[in-house]
C-alpha cells in the first residue's frame, strides 16, 4: 500500500466529488491519447481543467544485473502505483490539491521533485492502464478509449522513445515484441469494454469533435461563464461551501447568520479588488532587500453604491477592507416591471439617491447580495451610466445570483463585471432565489 494512502480523508466529506468531473482517456502506447487530451483541454478551456498523466505513477524499477532496463516490462499493471494514483484522484475529487510524482524515463526512476495540481472542475486522467483498476474506474464520470492500429502505434512509439527517451531503435523493437504488444493484447485492449466512448483509427478529428460536443452536453456547458465573459464566479472550496451551508440553513441564529455572511462578503470584496488596475511598485524590506510588488490607491479611485436595503449589509465588508472608500445609496421602486430580459426600465422610480459628487471618475462597486431578477441592479447601472460612469468601471458584487439576473445584466451591459459566489437554480414567483437563503436583508438586520 502506498505511503500516501494513510493520509486519505473519509469519503463522507461534504465536498466529495461535488464539483469535479473525471474523464479517463485510455488506449495503447502511442495511440494518440495525449493528442486527444490536448484537444479536450483546449476545447473545454473555458472550464478549469487539469490533466493527470498516469506515466507519472510508474514505480521505480528494481533492477539487477540479470535484468537490464530494456527487459523491464513497463506495460504490465504491476509497474504502476495504482494506490497512489487512486489516492491522488480522491484528493482532487474532494476539492483538495495533490502532489503528482515526477517519473524520468531517461533515468528510469522517480525524481525528488513533484508537481502540485490544484483542484479543478474537470480532471482528465490519461494512460494505458487508467481503466484497469476497478477502484479507479468507479471514480470516472466518463471514459474514452483511443483505438489505433498496431503498426501506427509502433511507428509513433519508435519516434517518441528515440527522440524523447534516448532509446535505440533495435532496443525499442525488441521491447515492443517481447512486452509491449503482448501486454496490450492481454491487459490494455480488454479494458476497452469499460469505455463509454471509443475513438477509432486516430487521428480522427470528426470523432474527437463529437466527443467534445458530448462532453459539453454531459457537463451542461451552456455554463453562463462561457456565454458571458464578464461573469466571474469565485472558485468554490470547502470553506466557502461551509459558509453557504450556514447562511442557507433556516435554523441558523441571527448572530451566526451575520457573522458568516460578513465573512463571505469580505471574500467577494477581496476578489472584486483583484479586478481593479494596479501599479507596479518596488519597496525595500526591513532587511534591506528589494521586493517587486504592486500598489493601488483605492481612496481616490473607488466608491461603492449599496442598493437599499439588502446592499447595505455589504457596507461593513467594504469598510473593513477599503478604508475611506465612500459608499453611496440607491433606493428604487418598481411599477409593474416587464419580465422580458431586455425590458426597458422607464418605470423605475428613484426614491432616494446619495452618490459621491465625482462618481463619474471612479470605479463603482454596486452592492446587492442576492440577484434574483436583476431589475434593481440593471436600473442602478443605467442610472450610473447616465451620470457619466463608464460601463467597464462598474463591478457588481453579490453572494448569490439566479440565471435570470445574470442573463439580464450581462446581456445588456457586456462591459460590466458581475462577481458572485454561486449561481442559483432559479427564482420563485415570490422573488426568492432557489435554493436561496430566504429573505437575506430581513435575516441580516433581524427584521424577520
TrEMBL record:
Record key words, sorted: Allosteric enzyme, Glycosyltransferase, GTP-binding, Kinase, Nucleotide-binding, Transferase
Pathway: Pyrimidine metabolism; UMP biosynthesis via salvage pathway; UMP from uracil: step 1/1; Pyrimidine metabolism; CTP biosynthesis via salvage pathway; CTP from cytidine: step 1/3; Pyrimidine metabolism; UMP biosynthesis via salvage pathway; UMP from uridine: step 1/1
Signal peptide: none
UniProt-recorded Gene Ontology molecular function terms: ATP binding; glycosyltransferase activity; GTP binding; uridine kinase activity
Phosphoribulokinase/uridine kinase domain: residues covered: 22-204
Pfam families: PRK (PF00485), UPRTase (PF14681)
Example GO biological process: UMP salvage
Phosphoribosyltransferase domain ranges (all copies): 235-447
Cofactor: Mg(2+)
Annotated family: Belongs to the UPRTase family.
Protein name: Phosphoribulokinase uridine kinase family protein
Organism name: Cryptosporidium andersoni
Amino acid at each position: 500500500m502506498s505511503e500516501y494512502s494513510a493520509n486519505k480523508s473519509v469519503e463522507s466529506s461534504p465536498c466529495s466529488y461535488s464539483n469535479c468531473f473525471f474523464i479517463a482517456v485510455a488506449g495503447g502506447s502511442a495511440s494518440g491519447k495525449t493528442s486527444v487530451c490536448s484537444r479536450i483541454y483546449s476545447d473545454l478551456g473555458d472550464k478549469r481543467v487539469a490533466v493527470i498523466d498516469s506515466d507519472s505513477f510508474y514505480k521505480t524499477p528494481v533492477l539487477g544485473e540479470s535484468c537490464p532496463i530494456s527487459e523491464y516490462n513497463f506495460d504490465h499493471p504491476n509497474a504502476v502505483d495504482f494506490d497512489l494514483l487512486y489516492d491522488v484522484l480522491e484528493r482532487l475529487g474532494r476539492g483538495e490539491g495533490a502532489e503528482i510524482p515526477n517519473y524520468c524515463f531517461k533515468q528510469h526512476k522517480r525524481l525528488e521533485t513533484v508537481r502540485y495540481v490544484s483542484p479543478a472542475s474537470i480532471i482528465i486522467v490519461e494512460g494505458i492502464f487508467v481503466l484497469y483498476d476497478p477502484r479507479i474506474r468507479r471514480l470516472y464520470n466518463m471514459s474514452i478509449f483511443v483505438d489505433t492500429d498496431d503498426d501506427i502505434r509502433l511507428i509513433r512509439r519508435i519516434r517518441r522513445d528515440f527522440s524523447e527517451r534516448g532509446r535505440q531503435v533495435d532496443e525499442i523493437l525488441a521491447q515492443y515484441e517481447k512486452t509491449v504488444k503482448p501486454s496490450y493484447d492481454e491487459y490494455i485492449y480488454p479494458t476497452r469494454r469499460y469505455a463509454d466512448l471509443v475513438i477509432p483509427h486516430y487521428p480522427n478529428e470528426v470523432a474527437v469533435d463529437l466527443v467534445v460536443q458530448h462532453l459539453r452536453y454531459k457537463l451542461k456547458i451552456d455554463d453562463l461563464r462561457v456565454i458571458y465573459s464578464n461573469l466571474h464566479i469565485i472558485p468554490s472550496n470547502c470553506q466557502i461551501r461551509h459558509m453557504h451551508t450556514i447562511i442557507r440553513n433556516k435554523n441558523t441564529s441571527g448572530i451566526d447568520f451575520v457573522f458568516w455572511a460578513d465573512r463571505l462578503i469580505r471574500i467577494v470584496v477581496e476578489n472584486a479588488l483583484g479586478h481593479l488596475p494596479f501599479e507596479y511598485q518596488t519597496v525595500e524590506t526591513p532587511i534591506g532587500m528589494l521586493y517587486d510588488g504592486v500598489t493601488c490607491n483605492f481612496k481616490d479611485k473607488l466608491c461603492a453604491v449599496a442598493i437599499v436595503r439588502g446592499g447595505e449589509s455589504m457596507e461593513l465588508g467594504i469598510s473593513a477592507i477599503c478604508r475611506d472608500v465612500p459608499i453611496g445609496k440607491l433606493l428604487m421602486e418598481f411599477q409593474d416591471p416587464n419580465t422580458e430580459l431586455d425590458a426597458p426600465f422607464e418605470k423605475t422610480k428613484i426614491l432616494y439617491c446619495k452618490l459621491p459628487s465625482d462618481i463619474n471618475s471612479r470605479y463603482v462597486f454596486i452592492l446587492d447580495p442576492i440577484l434574483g431578477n436583476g431589475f434593481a441592479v440593471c436600473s442602478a447601472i443605467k442610472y450610473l451610466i447616465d451620470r457619466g460612469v463608464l460601463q467597464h468601471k462598474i463591478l457588481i458584487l453579490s453572494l448569490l445570483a439566479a440565471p435570470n439576473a445574470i442573463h439580464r445584466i450581462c446581456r445588456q451591459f457586456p462591459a460590466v463585471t458581475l462577481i458572485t459566489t454561486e449561481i442559483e437554480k432559479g427564482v420563485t414567483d415570490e422573488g426568492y432565489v432557489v435554493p436561496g437563503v430566504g429573505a437575506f436583508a430581513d435575516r441580516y438586520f433581524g427584521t424577520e
